[in-house]
Each structure stands twice: as C-alpha cells, then as structure tokens.
C-alpha cells in the first residue's frame, strides 16, 4: 500500500509545488561615471501587461533590490536617468539578477548635446542593412567596426548564481527593430565585448533561456561605451540539473515497476484478483472499518466525464487518502479522462 500512497503524494505534491508563486530578486546598481554612486534616486518599475508598479529609492551604496514575480518584463524610470530602460526578472524561483548602470550626473544636458539628427540616424540604418543576419564573434571580443560611431561598445559581465564568472557561456544579442543578431561566448572572466549598432533595443538570449534581458542602445553622436552585468544559472548547470532529474525519474520508474511486480506476485500467490488485494491492503493500511468507506463509495457510484480531485494528505486524513489511492490505481488505466 505504501506504493499507492506515495503515488498519490507525488501527484499532489507536484501540483502544489508548481502552483506556488515564483519570486525572484533584481538588484540595480547606479554609479556616477565620474566617481561615486547615486544615492536616494527614485527607481520605478512598471510591469508590462498588468501595469503593476514597484518603487524604491537607492540606498547609500547606490543600489536597490526588488522582489518581482518570475519571468516578467518591466519598464524602468530613474530620477536622474533620461533614457528608457527595460529589464526582465529571472524565470527561476529564488534567484537574483543584477545590473549596473554608470552614467553622467548631468545626463539630460549631455543627451541634448549628443542627440543625432534624422540624417545621422539614416546613415546608421543604411550601414546596418549590409550586416549579416547573425554576426558570429569568434572570440570573447568582437572585431572593431570600420566606423565605430555607428556602434556602442558594450561589455557584458556574466556571473553564475554564486557570484563567480560564468565562463564559456554562449550569448546572443538580437535587435528587435532591425532583426540583426550578434553571437559570442564569454571568456574566463565571464566577459563578452560586442559592438552593437545604435538605435535599437537588443534582447539577450541563452541556449536554453530566451528573452532573458533587454538592453537599449540609443542613437548618440560620437563613440560610446556601455557595461551590462547579469547573473544567470548557466547552461552547464541547467544541463547538470536536467540530467539529475532524468536520472531521478528513471530510478523512480524502476522502483514503481519493481513494486508493481511484487504486487502482482502477491496476487498470484494468494490467488486473488488485484481488486481484492487492493481492498485487503486498504483495510490493513488505513485500519478503517468496512462501513467507513465514504470516499470509495462516492467515487464508485459517480461516473464523471471530467475529474479534478483535491486531496487533504495530512495524517488524520490518511485512511481516506488510501481509499482514493486504491480507486485511482483501479481506474486510471481504463478511464481516458483521468489524469
């Protein structure tokens, strides 16, 4: 009977686990490019779709940490930062992503000075058309373009969940406006340097995680540089966890099959049907008198076309959970709608 109780427990515990709210953290660091940090700056994040607003001020170290629902996209406004910012929360429960932004204290004035004319923007657009759909970066440093004023030199620093450098991680930057992508791999320091054409927003993808984060590269006169720091679980760790889960499932399937065979041998030895064996074990395991079969009786007298069963698995309800387990094993093979 332990086999059947465990089967039900696994089913309902899985449902419970996936129904829990997934929450991840996002840490934003604001640095003054001339030295120091921006303390007391209001940071407002608005979730795209729902419009949910999260607001905090940076602390004395220039950073702020938000707790977001997993895998959501946010428009970010910062008190002394004039350009739009978009970020995406981690898709994994309990993890933390981080991003560092460094900019001038008189950003509004500087932005007006470096604003491109329509003719300048068209020149960039025309130059980008000639690029391949995907530019492959053969090392962790992209070759400097012939006209660097059309690009922003961006250094991505990638960390694993322990804060160490995430090495040999393949990263793809995909432009949302022009559909031009740039693909490279981080070095031993977890860094990747790319030159991204100005005037586009780039979505960052990993091998097993698409749409992880966004980075806007605005139109701006002259040469420009930027830095982006992200935390990610890493492809190797994802593969390791996937393999471990596959092995766990295989072992569980072997155990269940072994117990199934033992049960069938028990039926042959006792010369009884499976249904009678279930009933015997029901009485043995639950210690319920035969007349206290309210769950079994209810399930047996109804023929629902669709079923959603919610079960209380606390200790006091064990006898009734056992009845449900027996009914389930007797019926799941012959009822197509039973899951």
How are the SSEs ordered, and which strands pair?
Layout (H helix, E strand, L loop, with lengths): L1 H18 L3 E10 L9 E6 L5 E5 L5 E7 L3 E6 L2 E8 L7 E8 L3 H8 L3 H12 L4 E3 L14 E9 L10 E6 L5 E5 L5 E7 L2 E6 L7 E5 L6 E8 L3 H36 L3 H13 L7 H8 L16 H14 L8
Parallel strand pairs: 1-7, 8-11, 9-15
Antiparallel strand pairs: 1-4, 2-3, 2-5, 5-6, 9-12, 10-11, 10-13, 13-14
Descriptive account of the structure:
With 339 residues, the protein is an alpha+beta fold. It folds into three domains: 25-233, Sandwich (Immunoglobulin-like), CATH 2.60.40.10; 234-271; 274-339, no CATH class. It has helices at residues 2-19, 107-114, 118-129, 235-270, 274-286, 294-301, 318-331; strands at residues 23-32, 42-47, 53-57, 63-69, 73-78, 81-88, 96-103, 134-136, 151-159, 170-175, 181-185, 191-197, 200-205, 213-217, 224-231. The strands form four sheets. The chain has a five-stranded mixed beta sheet, with no helix packed on it. A four-stranded antiparallel beta sheet has the order 3-2-5-6. A three-stranded mixed beta sheet has the order 4-1-7, with no helix packed on it. Helix 1 (2-19) packs across helix 7 (318-331) and helix 6 (294-301) runs parallel beside helix 7 (318-331). The longest helix has 36 residues, at 235-270. It is elongated, with a radius of gyration of 29 Å. The relative contact order is 0.12. Mean pLDDT is 85; it is low at 1-19.
């Amino acid at each position: 009977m332990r086999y059947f109780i465990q089967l039900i427990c696994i089913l309902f515990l899985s449902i419970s686990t996936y129904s829990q709210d997934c929450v991840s953290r996002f840490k934003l660091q604001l640095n003054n490019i001339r030295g120091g940090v921006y303390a007391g700056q209001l940071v407002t994040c608005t979730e795209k779709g729902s419009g949910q607003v999260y607001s905090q001020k940076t602390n004395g170290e220039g950073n702020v940490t938000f707790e977001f629902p997993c895998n959501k996209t946010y428009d970010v406004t910062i008190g002394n930062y004039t350009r739009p910012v978009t970020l995406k929360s981690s898709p994994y429960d309990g993890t933390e992503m981080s991003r560092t932004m460094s900019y001038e204290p008189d950003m509004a004035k500087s932005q007006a000075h470096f604003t491109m004319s329509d003719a300048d923007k068209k020149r960039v657009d025309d130059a980008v058309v000639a690029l391949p759909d995907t530019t492959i970066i053969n090392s962790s440093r992209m070759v400097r373009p012939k006209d660097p004023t059309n690009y922003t030199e961006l250094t991505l620093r990638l960390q694993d969940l322990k804060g160490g450098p995430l090495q040999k991680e393949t990263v793809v930057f995909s432009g949302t406006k022009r559909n031009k992508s740039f693909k490279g791999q981080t070095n031993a320091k977890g860094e990747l340097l790319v030159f991204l054409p100005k005037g586009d927003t780039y979505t960052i993808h990993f091998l097993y995680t698409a749409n992880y984060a966004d980075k806007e590269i605005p139109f701006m006169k002259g040469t420009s540089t930027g830095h982006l720091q992200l935390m990610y679980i890493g492809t190797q760790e994802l593969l390791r966890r996937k393999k471990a889960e596959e092995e766990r499932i295989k072992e569980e399937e072997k155990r269940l099959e072994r117990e199934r065979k033992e049960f069938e041998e028990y039926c042959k030895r006792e010369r009884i049907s499976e249904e009678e064996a279930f009933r015997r074990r029901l009485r043995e395991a639950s210690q319920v008198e035969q007349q206290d079969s309210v769950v079994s009786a209810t399930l047996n007298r109804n023929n629902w076309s669709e079923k959603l069963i919610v079960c209380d698995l606390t200790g006091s309800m064990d006898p009734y959970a056992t009845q449900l387990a027996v009914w389930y094993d007797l019926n799941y093979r012959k009822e197509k709608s039973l899951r």
